[in-house]
Amino acid sequence: MKLIIKLISLSLIMISSYTFSESNYGSLFSFAENRIEIKGTAPNIIFSSNEKIGEVCSDEMIACFRSDKPSNIYIQAGLEVDLINATLVGLMSDYLQFNVNKNIDYLKSCNAQVDYLLSSFKVNKAKIYKATACGRKTISHKEMEVLLASK
Description:
It is a single chain. The protein is mainly α. It has a domain at 2-37 and 81-149. Helices cover 63% and strands 9% of the residues. A three-stranded mixed β-sheet has the order 1-3-2. The termini are far apart.
């Protein structure tokens, strides 16, 4: 009986968090549209297992937008909400740019992610995103310490 109650509780929590995050995608998409000044139709967000993301994207990625499937954004299930949201803002920016220009300016997408994190009061994460060009560049542990200690 306790197991059934735990399973039901867990299911309700998962459904409510999924519903919350589903409703949040519209605001993330609006943020991306406004930040890069391109309007469009919202993409399909597809959450998949790590293995499936490795097949669809690449082994080292947690999410991707594919030009051969331009209406979908693929993201690994089970990630931290801040990481999901910042990643989606970046990929939605890529998606919008590609659908209009058939080209992606990664700096615009990165700036949208940094702005999103700042607007969410995630200053340290925004600093890290900016310093690493949103994960496209690595920095040393010492550089990270200095970065996070700075104002």
